[in-house]
Amino acid sequence: MKALSRLLPCLGLALCLPAVASDYPLTLDSCQRQVTFERSPQRAVSHDVNMTGMLLALGLRERMAGYTGISGWKSLTPAMRQALDGLPELASRYPSLETLLEAEADFFFAGWNYGMRVGGPVTPDSLAAFGIPAYELSESCSHIMPQREASLDDLYRDLLNLGRIFAVQPRAGALVEDLRGRVAAVAARLAQATERPGVFLYDSGEDRPTSSGRLGMPQALIAAAGGRNLMDDVSASWTQVGWESVVERNPQLIVIVDYGPRSWQQKRDFLLAHPALQEVEAIRRQRFVVLSYEAVTPSVSNAEAIERLASALHPALFDEARE
After folding, report:
1. Cystine design at 52: which of 47, 67, 120, 245 (Cβ 3.0–4.6 Å)?
2. Which CDD domains match (predicted)?
3. How far apart are CA 143 and CA 117, in angstroms?
4. One digit per residue, pLDDT tens: the chain, 323 residues?
5. 84, 67 in Cβ contact below 8 A?
6. Domain extents for the chain?
7. Residue among 162, 159, 182, 167 at smallest CA distance from 298
């Protein structure tokens, strides 16, 4: 998790760049609604490792009441464990409304299927009844409204909006500038690429694999890395597909998400032994890239994911840049 590791010195000092005043009340778009902030949050709660990482990267740890939804599904990297040391995990999976009220939360950063469920007990509306504003992860808006394919602009917009919400615009701007610069550096090398290899993302599942369609962040990551998401015709973010569709599309590279109860090695061994996949190019050549859950969901680790994918898809263009 290099992205967060690079920012840990800033987190230790609490401030890397000065905060600036936002004009409150501040009204922002969040999915299909508008949300108003009367003041900068002082007891924020984030859900999931990717959104928690965003707040930490912006130097907001001292303004967090806690986080939710990490230990129930995921393990922490040493860098994230260090950054979260002493900050309470309020719920190992999805939080209840009571949990957020007991924590005296004054802001909830989550998403649809990232801490909130359509029709569930914790939603922006249910929180608003108690004066708790919520900001929804932009990528997750596809669960409640029509959405174009996933874009890195969604990530950048969320980070900049968080900067406005917490009045840390210089920090947010610097972080987005750094991420954009790294992605642009990859694009410059890819200008010489002559093909876009097909990529299949494998999250989990044996009878039917869970992958990502064009509405999930992997769509944007694979495209920025000079590849093609072979499930880009599926109008969904995270969804189940059939093994027959994987065989038909014959990926040249498989991304394994290091997430869930099975290790990435177990997932790789399962794929290598799957009878139906034996003629798939990525299986025959054993071409895999392993990425963390955080890296394939909207997060400050997305630029690193693009760098790693691009290097694997176009090694001749990136050999000289490898460490």
Report:
1. 67
2. TroA_a (cd01148)
3. 9
4. 455 555 444 443 334 555 566 789 999 999 999 999 999 999 999 999 999 999 999 999 999 999 999 998 877 888 889 999 999 999 999 999 999 999 999 999 999 999 999 999 999 999 999 999 999 999 999 999 999 999 999 999 999 999 999 999 999 999 999 999 999 999 999 999 999 999 999 999 999 999 999 999 999 999 999 999 999 999 999 999 999 999 999 999 999 999 989 999 999 999 999 999 999 999 999 999 999 999 999 999 999 999 999 999 999 999 865 54
5. yes
6. 2-177, 195-321
7. 159
288 closest CA partner among 262, 269, 302: 269
Determine whether domain 2-177 maps to CATH 3.90.740.10: no
- Amino acid (1-letter code) at residue 183: V
CA angle in degrees (0–180, nearest 5) for 114-149-94: 5
6 by Cβ neighbours in 10 Å (0-12 / 13-18 / 19+) ranks as: middle
2-177 matches 195-321 in fold: yes
The 10 Å CB-count burial string (b at 16+, else e) for 122-152 is: bbbeebeeeebbbbbbbbbbbbeeebeebbb
Residue with tokens 């050549």: 285
Question: Token pair of 166, please?
Answer: 């917490």
Contact 96, 36 (CB under 8 A): no
Question: Please, what CATH class does the domain formed by 195-321 belong to?
Answer: alpha beta
Instruction: Tell me phi and psi for residue 286, to 5 degrees.
Output: 50, 55
Q: Which residues contact 132 (CB under 8 A, 6 or more apart)?
A: 100, 105, 106, 107, 108
In a 10 Å sphere around its CB, with 0-12 CB exposed, 13-18 middle and 19+ buried, how is residue 251 labelled?
buried
List helix spans (H) across 135-280.
Answer: 152-165, 169-190, 217-224, 243-249, 264-273
